[in-house]
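Q: What does the assembled structure look like for these inputs?
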Amino acid sequence: MSLSDTIAAIATPRGEGGIGIVRVSGALAVPIACKIFRSPRHISPAQFSTHTLNYGRVVNPVSNAVIDEVMLGIMLAPKSYTAEDVVEFNCHGGVIPLQQVLELTLRAGARLAEPGEFTKRAFLNDRLDLAQAEAVVDLIQSQTELNFRVAMDLLSGKLSQEVNALSDRLADLLAEVEASIDFPDEDLDFIDLAAARKSAEAILNGLNRLMATAPDGKILREGARVAILGKPNVGKSSLLNALLQQERAIVTEIPGTTRDTIEEPLNLRGIPLKLIDTAGIHQTEDVVERQGIVRSKSYLDGADLLLVMFDASQPLTEADRQLLDAVNRSNAIFILNKVDLPVVTTIATLQTYAPQNSVVKTSVLYGDGIEDLKTAVLKEILKGRETISEGVIVTNIRHYEALRRAKIALEQARDSLFQAQSHDLIAVDLRTSLDCLGEIVGKITAEDILDRIFSQFCIGK
Amino acid sequence: MTVYPKQYDVIVVGAGHAGCEAALAASRMGCETLIATINLDTIAKMSCNPAIGGLAKGHLVKEIDALGGEMAKNIDKTGIQFRQLNTKKGPAVRSSRAQADKEAYQHEMRRVLEKQARLDIEPVLVEELLTENGRCIGILSHTDTAFLGKTVVLTTGTFLKGLVHVGEVTYSAGRAGESSAEKLSESFLKLGFEISRLKTGTPPRVKKDTVNFDVMAIQPGDEPPRPFSFSTEKISQAQMPCHLTYTNEKTHQIIRDNIKSSAMYSGRIVGIGPRYCPSIEDKVVRFSDKDRHQIFVEPEGRNTDEIYLNGISASLPEAVQVEMVHSIKGLENAQILRFAYAVEYDFAPATQIYANLETKRVENLFFAGQLNGTTGYEEAAAQGLMSGINAALKVRGQEPLILDRSQAYIGVLIDDLVTRDIREPYRMFTSRAEYRLALREDNADLRLTEIGRRIGLVDDSTYNQFQQKKLLIQEELERINQTVLNPTLRTLDELKQCGIDGLDKPTSLADLLKRPAMSYEGIKQLSPPIRPLPTAVEKQVEIQIKYDGYIRRQTLQIERFKKLEHLPIPDEIDYGSIHGIKTEAREKLAKIHPASIGQASRIPGVSPADISILMVRIKEFQRSQTAKIA
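A:
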C-alpha cells in the first residue's frame, strides 16, 4: 500500500519465448541490483548511468550461484515509468529464471507489487495524464476481481482453510500473551510457558508442512521441469520427440541445429511435466549458439530434473566430462543412448564419475528403453511417492513468501519463549507472524484479539 | 434570556476528569476560561473505583503529565497506595497504579482549579448549546442565562439522560443521588447529532468496621512508592493496604436464584456495557465453571469508612445485594453504605468528531470524555487535556495538536474513537497500541514534553529538569557505547560475579549490557559513571540499550506508518461521486472523513483495493484543481 516501499514483479506476460522482464521500482531498486547483479568488469550498478542497458549476471548473493545472464536496465527517477528509481532485469525468458530473479529481489528487500501497482505509481507520480485515471482504476478493479476469484479457488482448494486454522491457533497464543500483559491482576494463569512453546512448535510444523508442498505446487502450476542435456547430436531432440510421440524439434545430423530451447508440456501418467530440449553444451564460437548454451547452463539451476544424455557408441569427450562436472550432485538421470550401435561407453564408465545417479540405456532411434526412462523420471519427480501430495498445496509465490516470513517471526517468538524473554517482546514476534498469515487470509486486528480474550477468560473487576 | 457580562475564549461544560484537564489546559495556555458544572462539590469526583492508573491507563496518566496536564500530580499528592504492575513482563508493559483517597483527590483538584488564573468556576446546569451559522457561540443555563464563548468543550460524562438501575427500580440520575442533564441531549438531537446508549456499573460499598480483614489476603503497596508525575520527587505520605477475598458457590447460587430481578438480565437495559468490566451477574452466568471470582477490598480514603468491593458490580435489588455480600468470606456482617447500580447514559458516537475532538457538524464545539463513548478516568482526562489544548489553539488561530498512533497512547485512543465507530464503552489496553515497544511509561516525557513545552503547558522548571535528564541520558549512552572492556583477569573475575562467563575479545559496555544476564547495575559495578546518575536516567539507558534491536525494528515500522499518515486527503473530496470504490467503503469514508490515507486504511470495511483507487482519485482531484487555477 505504501508509496515508499520498493516493489518488484514480472512485468512481461507469462510465456516461454523471447525476453522476460523483472521490474523493480522504488528507493531500494538500485541497492537491490547491487546485491544480486554482477557485471563482467565488477562495476557496481550504482555506477551505471541512467537509461543504459548493461550486460551481466544475476547471482544468488548467498550461494553465489549464477541464475541467469541478463541485460540490466537502469532508469533513475524521475525519468522512469513510475517516476521512481527503476531497474529492469531482462532475462532469457522462460519461467524459471524470471521466478528466480524475482525471488532474489524479494529477499533483497523488495515487496511483491500489488496488481496494477506500477501503473498506479506512475499515475500518482504524474507520469500518466489525467485521462488515464479511469484506466488505472479499471486495472486495479479487474486485478482485484481476479485475485478474488483466485481467492475463491483457494478457498475450495483448502489453502486458506488450512492457513486460517494456523492463524487461529496463533491468534489464540497471542491472546494468551496479551491477556497476561493487559490483565495482571486477574486470578488466572493465562499462559503456561511449556504449553505455549509446544503450541508454537505445532504451528511451526504446520507452516513447514505447507511450505513443503510448494515444490509440488510448482509442479501442478507449471509442470515439473525436465531438461534434456547433452553434447550436440547425442539425440536430445529425438528423445524429446519419442517422449512426445510427435515431430516437434528439428532433427538433423548437423550438430547444433537446436538453437533455441524448446519447451513442451507432457502429461506423464497424470503428472504434468515440461520437457526442455536445450542447445548442446559445448564450446563454440557461434554467438547465437553461445546464447543457447548459456541458457542450457541456467537450466542446471532451474530444472527439477535433468536428463543427461551420452553417446554409448563413442568414448566420453572433453565436453561430456565437463557436463558430468557441471551436473555433479544435481538431480539427474543419465541416459546412455545409441546402445543399438557397438557400445564404447558403459554404465560402469559413467558411474566412476557419478556413482549416485541412475543410468538408463536407450536407443531412441528404435524406441528402446523409453518406458524404463519414463518410470525412472516419475520415480525421481515423486521421490518414492505414488503421486504428488493430496490436499492443500501452496501454488502462489505471494503465499509462499508470506508463509516464509510468518515462519521466521514465529521461530523468533518460539526462541524467546524458550529463553523466557519478556512478554512484550514475544508478543511483537507473534504479532508479526500473524500479520504475515493475514496477508493470505485477512488481517486479525487488535480488536479481534481482545474479542478472543473476553470470550475465553473471565476478566475484569 | 440574559447574557452573562463576561465573554470567554473557552467554556468547559462538566468538571469531571475530562473537564478539569480541559479547563486547566485552556486557561494555562492563556485563554479566558469558564468551567460550568452542575455541582461544585463533585469536581473531579471518582464515581467508580478509587484508583488511578493500571495497565495502559498508567501510560495515559504519564503522557498527560508529560504534556503538562494535572492528573499525575494530583494522584501523587492524594494517593494512598502505589504499585507498579507487570514488573517482569517487559519495560513496555510496566504500568503504574495508585489507590486514591477519593475525597482528597477531589478537594485537591478543586483547589488547583480555584487557584488557576483566567479560570472561572460556575455552578450551572447547561440546557442548550447556542449556535449561529453552524458555529457554537456559547451555552444557555437552567436559569436562562447565556454564557458566550469562542469555543465550547462538552465533557458531560454519564449525565446525559442518565438512568440508574437497581434491581427492578429505575430513576433518572447522572450518578446515584445526583440529577442528570435531561435537556442537553434534546439540544444535541436538534443540532443533528446522533446519540446512542451505553451502560456501565458500579459495585456496593461497605462500612470499614463491619469488615473482617483478618481472614483476607493483604495487598500492600510498593516500597518505596514510585510517583506518576515526572516532576514529583518523592511520595512521602504513608500507604494503606488493600485486601483480597473471593466469591464462592453460595454467592453464585444467590445470584442465579435472583437473576430475573437483575436489571441487566430483565431486558430493561438497552445500553451496551463493557465486556472487560463485567457485572458479577455476567461472570456467574457466562463463566459458570469458575468456582470463585476475586474481589479487591479497597479503602476509598483515609478519613472515610467506605470500602469499595472491586469485582462485584451489579444491578441486583438491594435485598439480594445484602444476601450476596454476606455470603462472602470476611463480609459476613458487612453493612452496605451504598448499593451497587448500573447506569445507562447517552453518548455521541465519536465518528462525529475530528481528531482534534472538534465536532464535524458544529464548528468550535468539542466533545471529550465519556460523552465520546470511553470509560475510565484516565481515558476521560486524556481527551479532556487534548480538547482543552485544541480549543485554545483554535482560539489562537493555530494548527490543531493531533498525536498519532506512534507518538502516544493518547493518539491511539483518539484515532480509534474517530476512525472505528465504536459502540462499546472503550477502555485502553496496551494491546491496542501497535507500536507498544516505543510507547512506554518510562519514556512518556521523552516523547511528549517538547510538545507540551511548545504549546505552552510545560513550565520553566519542569522543562529545565527535563532537558537536564535528556542530557544525562545522552552522555551515559555515549559512555556505555564507547567504553570498551578488555578481557583482563580482573575484569573476567568481576564479570563472573555478574553471571557472565568469558569474554573473548575487547567488548563495549553496550554489548555487555545486551546480554540477558547483564543489568545496568552490573555495568555500574564494572565501570561506574563519573558521578552517580538518577534512577530514571539509569533505567532509560538500560532499556534503550537492552532492547535496541526490537526498538530499531519498531522505529522502521513507525517510519513506514508515518509516510501514509502524512498523505492528506483533501477536505473537498466528495465520496459520493467517487466511482470504483465499494459502496460500503464509500459510505464509511463519507461518514468518517479520514484526514489521511493512513487513517482511511484503518477504517473497518475499507479494503486495500479501495485505498488504491482512493489514492488515484485524490490525485485526479488535485490535478484537476491545479488545472483550474492555471
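Chain A touches chain B through 47 residues (CB under 8 Å).
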